[in-house]
Amino acid sequence: MANTVVDDRVANLADRTKSAVGAVADDARSQVDGIASRVTGAAEHAYGHARDQLRDATGAVTTSVEQQPLIAMAAVGLVCGILGFLLARR
């Protein structure tokens, strides 16, 4: 009879421990999911912001080249000349 009571108490303690560990694991999982969601949202926002800035910069360069093509060609030639000089020195 005493063994049955002890067995019942051990089983009860094991069940409570199991449920407590499960609750902690579920809490940790929900915290990780929440953090992952926030990080994903922040990355999407940063990507969208960078994409918009690049689109604006591309538009500004396009407008500048369309309005002053000779200056744009001179700038490209200067950059290419400098790169050629630097690479030839190797």
Summarize the topology.
Elements: H1 2-67, H2 69-88
Summarize the entry for a quick read.
With 90 residues, the chain is mainly α.
Describe this structure in words.
This protein has helices spanning 2-67, 69-88. With 90 residues, it is mainly α. It has one domain. Helix 1 (2-67) packs across helix 2. The longest helix has 66 residues, at 2-67.
Secondary structure class reads mainly alpha
Give Rg in angstroms: 33 Å
Unreliable sequence segments: none
Q: What number is the mean pLDDT? A: 85
Count the domains: 1
| Count of helix runs | 2
Taken in chain order, the helices and strands follow as: HH
Number of separate strands:
0
Principal-axes geometry comes out as: rod-shaped
The percent range for helix content is over 70%
Question: Major sheet, described briefly?
Answer: none
